[in-house]
Automatic annotation (TrEMBL):
GO terms for cellular component: plasma membrane. It comes from the Bacteria. Signal peptide: none annotated. Keywords: Cell membrane, Membrane, Transmembrane, Transmembrane helix, Transport. The chain crosses the membrane at residues 44-68, 80-99, 105-124, 177-197, 203-223, 235-258. It is a multi-pass membrane protein. This is Probable membrane transporter protein. It is found in: Cell membrane. Its main location: membrane. Belongs to the 4-toluene sulfonate uptake permease (TSUP) (TC 2.A.102) family. InterPro entries: TM_pro_TauE-like (IPR002781), TSUP (IPR052017).
């Protein structure tokens, strides 16, 4: 089975994982988000929902640091301060969910959450809001989603649409937000025993996956000159929808005893 690779990882699966990280990093450099969207369903399919999302959290943390350095002049630190404190609040129930649910249920939850949040951002008209309460709700929802399913971008996108957040500032400020979410998710899940480090693939595999981030960043810098942020988001949505549907199908199949 693809999700059980504790020691030996097939070269083809490594190539798929590396390609997903590069694509996700390129999209994140172009539009501000993409690593979690692309990498989470891919690694969950390859490594299982617990180890896959945990490795996604690690990858997101690294990518956010590197991209954040590149976009540092456009970061809105006041918005970051409003969003960041509630990330921990949302992360704890996300970690408890990961620790309580079995593999098939987690795959169903991840697939459904990804598809549901993407549909919400695409189909639901978001009324304009402002103030501390929407920021607190976005931070809490983002922390929960990032810890449970490895993807917080849809929650941030809803908040950005509701507050009319300018794209340049939004893309830059997402990086310290994603860094905080990724680090918090790893600490919370490992600390609560929901996702033990021992469940990850060997260190060389982790190193290879994370090493794709700077490669994606270099490619993304070139692509960003020619591709709009909107086009980047559309590609991310297509990729994550395909991955989420596959993950959902496998989870349902596992619950039914097919896989």
């Amino acid at each position: 089975m693809l999700f059980s690779m504790p020691v030996d990882v097939a070269p083809l699966l490594l190539i798929v994982a590396a390609a997903a990280v590069i694509l996700g990093t390129v999209l994140q450099r172009v539009s501000g988000m993409g690593v979690g969207l692309v990498v989470a369903p891919t690694l969950a399919l390859l490594l299982g929902p617990v180890a896959g999302v945990l490795l996604t959290n690690l990858t997101t943390t690294v990518s956010a640091v590197l991209i954040g350095i590149t976009l540092r002049h456009d970061i809105d630190w006041q918005r970051y301060v409003r969003l960041a404190p509630l990330i921990v609040v949302g992360s704890v129930p996300g970690a408890l969910l990961v620790g309580a649910a079995d593999r098939s249920w987690l795959e169903v939850i991840i697939g459904t959450a990804l598809i549901g949040t993407l549909l919400m951002t695409a189909l639901v008209r978001i009324p304009p809001v402002s103030g501390a309460v929407p920021a607190a709700m976005a931070g809490t929802a983002g922390g929960f989603l990032n810890t449970a399913v490895g993807v917080a971008a849809p929650a941030m996108l809803v908040y950005a649409q509701a507050t009319n957040w300018q794209q340049r500032s939004f893309a830059a400020t997402l990086q310290p937000i994603f860094f905080t979410m990724g680090l918090t998710s790893v600490i919370t899940k490992v600390g609560l025993g929901a996702a033990p480090i021992s469940g990850l693939p060997p260190l060389p595999v982790i190193g290879l996956v994370v090493a794709m981030v700077p490669i994606g960043l270099l490619v993304g810098g070139l692509v960003a000159r020619r591709v709009t942020a909107e086009a980047g988001r559309k590609v991310a949505v297509v990729v994550v929808t395909a991955g989420a549907l596959l993950l959902l199908a496998r989870g349902v199949g596992g619950m039914a005893g097919v896989f």
